[in-house]
Amino acid sequence: MKPAVFDLKHARNVGDAVEILAGSDGNGKVMAGGQSLGPMLNLRLTRPKLLVDIKRAEGFREFAADDKVFSIGAGWTHGEIEDGMIEDPTQGLLKFVAHGIAYRAVRNRGTMGGSLAHADPAADWVTTLGALGATIVAQGTAKQPKRYAAETFVEGAFMTKLAENEVIVAIEVPRLSPRAKWAYYKICRKTGEFANAIGVAILDQKTGMTRVLAGATDGSPAVLPRTAVRLAEAGPEAACLLVADELEEMLPNSNADTRELHAVAVRRALMQIVKEHD
User: Fold this and answer.
1) What are 221-271's pLDDT values in tens digits?
2) φ, ψ (nearest 5 deg) of residue 212
3) CA quadruple 36, 37, 41, 43: dihedral, nearest 10
4) How many angstroms separate the CA atoms of 226 and 88, rounded?
5) d(C-alpha 95, C-alpha 86), whole Å
6) What is the pLDDT of residues 119-135, one digit of tens each?
7) Element (H, E) at 160
8) How far apart are CA 160 and CA 44, in angstroms?
């Protein structure tokens, strides 16, 4: 199939992209790498009247850093992150996750911001950035950008908190200390596919960050705070004992088989955090 008819405009910069979107009456879509939006257009699962191309627009590949936060421009590709072309403030987690996204041709074009805006709950960045407690920075018609917590940014399948005239410009990622431990475990049928379940565990005793999260749910990732506290206080084996009960609380509408798959992914991440960093 081929896409339904649409107009195409090339934005020169962030402000231009916002202005074009604001004039589309809610019928515009932003395209960066196009690795998710392109197939959906061809299948006519989405039929925007206007596409705003930001691939070469200025302001989407900036980065800034201090000793606590690293801000990554939304236009950096998975492949560039995988190749270490920008600093990884997470002691290797971002690079590891980028390497497992789809296959290289997709990673060469797909962007972090595009993945977040597309909002497939099974996408790697949705889960990873939620686990890190990252902040998504979006620019709209207001003078000041808006900031959204990554863990609650996705409201459902392909649904986010972005307003119709907003575009993601950056992702603010907390720095992990050199002593930080992390594990990312993805259950899928073959390498590179979207996950059926994801487990993430982060333990950084120096900064006080301990996070455990189940991803690839029907909406936002499920943050497991009680499991995280147990991980910090008693270690991964003790934390594993809480996973199933906490997932039942956090995902009450999912069936038992689905919750168990997520529990397996989380438990394996918890146990892997020891094996990978010992």
Assistant:
1) 999 999 999 999 999 999 999 999 999 999 999 999 999 999 999 999 999
2) -130, 135
3) 20
4) 28
5) 10
6) 999 999 999 999 999 99
7) strand 159-160
8) 20
Cβ–Cβ under 8 Å, residues 73 and 13: no
Q: Which residues share a beta bridge with 71?
A: 64, 172
Cα–Cα distance for residue pair 57/16, rounded to 1 Å: 9
Compute φ and ψ for 149, nearest 5 degrees.
Answer: -70, 130
Nearest 5°: CA angle at 101, between 95 and 104? 90
Q: Which of 207, 149, 173 is nearest to 70 (CA)?
A: 173
Instruction: Determine how β-strand 69-73 pairs with β-strand 159-160.
Output: unpaired
In single-letter form, the type of residue at position 243 comes to V
Other C-beta atoms lying within 10 Å of the C-beta of residue 110:
24
- Which among 166, 168, 139, 153 has a CA at the least distance from the CA of 74? 168
CB atoms within 10 A of CB 226: 15
pTM: 0.94
Cα–Cα distance for residue pair 219/204, rounded to 1 Å: 27
